[in-house]
From TrEMBL:
Keywords: ATP-binding, DNA-binding, Nucleotide-binding, Transport. Residues 32-290 form the ABC transporter domain. Residues 290-333 form the SpoVT-AbrB domain. The keyword ATP-binding applies. The lineage of its organism: Bacteria, Bacillati, Actinomycetota, Actinomycetes, Kitasatosporales. This is ABC transporter ATP-binding protein. It comes from Streptomyces thermospinosisporus. GO terms for molecular function: ATP binding.
Length: 336
């Protein structure tokens, strides 16, 4: 490492920095040092403390974390329901900090779909499944054809008979894909919790959103039904290519996705990536999971508490740069 850089070194570094693509330039969701501070009864709570997260188009990923770690705060921001205090957040090219109220409404109708834990929050109780799924399509049509449209929605806009027929077809396609076509004429109270959540996914997908957000979508369901709901998300991801972010406490759900990001104290702390490998001896395919720590843009690294505890690391650690890794050792100058 150069300790006394020359002017030429510095010039080269500045040029290299300038030419480097911006953080998250190719991601569908970019959270860059996101901060959300709540003030309640004069007390400040930092729900998000400089959270970085990138999600690529077409991903199906899970967000996990202890209660109070900031998951719902992040989801509400991504859903366009809340505004961050500082940092940057972009979804499908929309800047979530600078959107006007009107942009925000359009964003919630057209760019993101959401499924909440409480089945009752997802569906209107006095409408049938088909009517619930048709509603976002009608709202969008009422806003008028000619507005910007998602991939497959252009033909459903407008008031004509052809548009109405196209909307009815889309409703049935979605209900069939999610295997609840037989519930088309039932109201929410006439369906099981699992069926209601599948209809809720259809509602969320109606306008062909770029991103589907789900906050504990299996929280009120038994494990067998939860598995079916997760399968429904997977179907949506594979068939429609929708990018899906699921907040979950359910380890079984988290184990099913390729990428699980853990949030701790309002920051992304670790990430588990899973990939399929073929066993050289048996030829069987198995899923290999590997945990990574997140290195933020300032170079900060959060070491897992169980690691630091195991080696009694506190306050200060010794770092050594090796050819292919960095060693982190307990502080050997400590006298206690
Ligand atoms: N509107 C609010 N006003 C004040 N504090 C809030 C508000 N919303 C969230 N918080 C606080 O922010 C922190 C993060 O909350 P958040 O709901 O995002 O956590 P979470 O990870 O979703 O938790 P859970 O898994 O229990 O839903 C908590 O300390 C919470 O008390």
């Amino acid at each position: 490492m150069t300790t006394n850089p020359t002017l030429d070194d510095l010039t080269r570094r500045v040029t290299a920095d300038r030419d480097r693509p911006a953080f998250g330039h190719d991601a569908l969701i970019t959270c860059d040092r996101l901060v959300r501070v709540f003030t309640a009864d004069g007390v400040e709570v930092q729900a998000l403390q400089g959270l970085d997260l990138l999600v690529r188009e077409g991903e199906l990923m899970a967000l996990v974390g202890a209660s109070g770690s900031g998951k719902s705060t992040l989801m509400n921001i991504l859903a366009g329901l809340d505004v961050p205090t500082a940092g940057a957040a972009r979804v499908a090219g929309r800047d979530l900090l600078t959107m006007t109220a009107r942009d925000r409404l359009a964003y919630r109708r057209e760019v993101v779909g959401f499924v909440w834990q409480q089945t009752a929050r997802n569906l209107l109780p006095y409408l049938t499944s088909a009517q619930n799924v048709a509603l976002p399509l009608q709202l969008r049509s009422a806003k008028g054809a000619g507005e910007s449209t998602g991939k497959g929605t252009a033909r459903i806009l407008g008031r004509g008979r052809a548009a109405r027929r196209a909307r009815a077809e889309r409703v049935m396609e979605l209900l069939e894909m999610l295997q609840v076509a037989d519930c088309r004429d039932r109201r929410p109270h006439e369906m099981s919790g699992g069926q209601q959540q599948r209809v809720a996914i259809a509602v969320a997908l109606a306008n062909d959103p770029a991103v589907l957000l789900a906050d504990e979508p299996t929280g009120e369901l038994d494990s067998h039904t939860a598995e079916q709901i997760f399968a429904a998300f997977r179907t949506a991801n594979e068939r429609l290519g929708t990018t899906i972010v699921i907040v979950t406490h359910d380890q079984a759900v988290a184990n099913e996705v390729r990428r699980t990001v853990a949030i701790r104290d309002g920051r992304t702390s670790t990430e588990v990536l899973r990939r399929s490998e073929v066993d050289e001896v048996t030829g069987d395919e198995k899923v290999v999971a590997r945990e990574y720590a997140m290195l933020d843009r300032a170079g900060r690294l959060q070491l897992p508490a169980e690691y630091t505890r195991a080696l009694d690391m506190r306050d200060r650690v010794a770092l050594e740069l090796e050819p292919d890794h960095i060693a982190v050792r307990p502080d050997d100058s400590r006298t206690d």
